[in-house]
What does this fold into?
Amino acid sequence: MTSISLPPQAVGSAFSLDKMIVARDKTMAAVRRIAAQIRPGMTEQQAKDLAKAELESMGMDRIWHGIIVRFGRSTLKIFKQQIDPDNVLLDDDIFFIDLGIVWDGHEGDAGDTFVTGDNARKRACAEAARQLWQEVADKWRRERLAGPALYQYAAERAEAMGWRLNLDIKGHRVSDFPHSIYKAGSLGDFAQCPDTGLWILEIQIADPSGEFGAFYEDLLVSES
It folds into this structure.
């Protein structure tokens, strides 16, 4: 059988940019609804189970990548590393949630970081991940940069802000489900300007102390 090579920014016949944005919005809403229910004393496994129940109650089509919840030092882990099911969230802690969910045949992918206490450095780290994501997205909108240039800019800005960017996390394709047939690779290695509504920009930073980090991801769309 002959293998057909599809362009890295191809989409399926059912693709709709409007549906991609709805999927993004629903996934981010789910992240925040789940975060509001996570409490100190929970384990990562309990939080993952809570997340799955919440997504089912919201009427998702399916999960397209595993639910990720990271507490404390585990916020330094990258996507491919397993959760620590017995890791407990502390009273003065940091955590993030990363969800990949299909809604109406389209892939949502969103992640954000939250803090349980009043630790100023942890709160600053969570906010810095969001700020850095916004700065990189704005750079893409203004200058139409390719993936490597976007992540070079992200690394430079992270250092200037006092954080370390984890360049093992470089973003990826999304589309009408399943995007994996397009074999597009990482956004950070993609040598063209990413089209609107097809790529997730991922930002993962670490505190220079090496004790914790923060994560934020969202869909790149031309209008903010």
User: Anything to note?
Assistant: The radius of gyration is 17 Å. Residues 120-143 form the longest helix (24 residues). Residues 17-219 form a domain with the Creatine Amidinohydrolase fold (CATH 3.90.230.10). The first strand starts at residue 62 and ends at 71.
